[in-house]
TrEMBL record:
This is Urease accessory protein. Keywords: Membrane, Signal, Transmembrane, Transmembrane helix. Residues 1-24 form the signal peptide. The keyword Acyltransferase does not apply. The keyword Repeat does not apply. Pfam families: HupE_UreJ. The chain crosses the membrane at residues 76-95, 107-140, 152-177, 183-200.
Length: 204
């Protein structure tokens, strides 16, 4: 098999290369209290834009949502992306009211598994289920960040950074499907495996 024919099949498996790093850094910890991670409004926003990229769980979830949005088509995909961002903001706000979700770290790891499996099993008829999963993912990740971020400035940066990750996911999906029709399913399977690794690490 030539490299040109092998590459489209192996590229979507890239998340598996990150699975071993999940043991050492499965994401960033989400304490059940606010932390003084940000220093000023400007720094708050700038650092929070990069915040979703500092944890494998957040990054994979957002990228998988971007892939799902691409699979849904332009109109439904735009709705799905907006729903994810809106749910993220809602989860953040509810967490600020003191209603944080239980089993936060395990839930974040499971969200990666769910997003990956959605890609593996995706069919057009599953759009309704897809919207529900996407909303749940956004809410859970927003809640995790709402616990640790003390002001609105980092929340705005978080939404912007997560939106960037979603866009990157959609672009990756567009490229991957051109390389191989099955690329999205391979990528979803790889992300799900990485999520399982994170679940095991956090339960152990």
């Amino acid at each position: 098999m030539t490299l040109r024919r092998l590459f489209p099949k192996t590229l979507p498996l890239a998340p598996l290369l990150l699975a071993t790093s999940a043991y050492a850094h499965p994401g960033h910890p989400h304490p059940f209290e606010e932390v003084d991670e940000f220093e000023s409004p400007a720094a708050d926003f700038a650092q929070a834009v990069l915040h979703p990229f500092s944890g494998l769980d957040h990054l994979l979830a957002a990228v998988m949502v971007g892939c799902l949005a691409y699979m849904m088509g332009r109109k439904l995909g735009a709705v799905a992306a907006a729903m994810f961002m809106g749910s993220l903001a809602l989860g953040w706000g509810i967490a600020k009211l003191g209603m944080a979700l239980p089993m936060m770290e395990q839930g974040l790891a499971l969200s990666v598994v769910a997003a990956g499996l959605m890609l593996v099993m995706y069919v057009k008829a599953s759009n309704t289920v897809g919207f529900g999963v996407i909303a749940a993912l956004g809410f859970w990740h927003g809640s995790a960040h709402g616990v640790e971020m003390a002001s609105v400035a980092p929340a705005a940066g978080l939404v912007a950074g997560t939106g960037l990750a979603v866009m990157l996911g959609s672009m990756a999906a567009m490229l991957a499907t051109k390389l191989s029709p099955s690329a999205i399913k391979y990528a979803g399977a790889a992300a799900a495996v990485a999520g399982v690794v994170m679940v095991v690490q956090r339960v152990a």
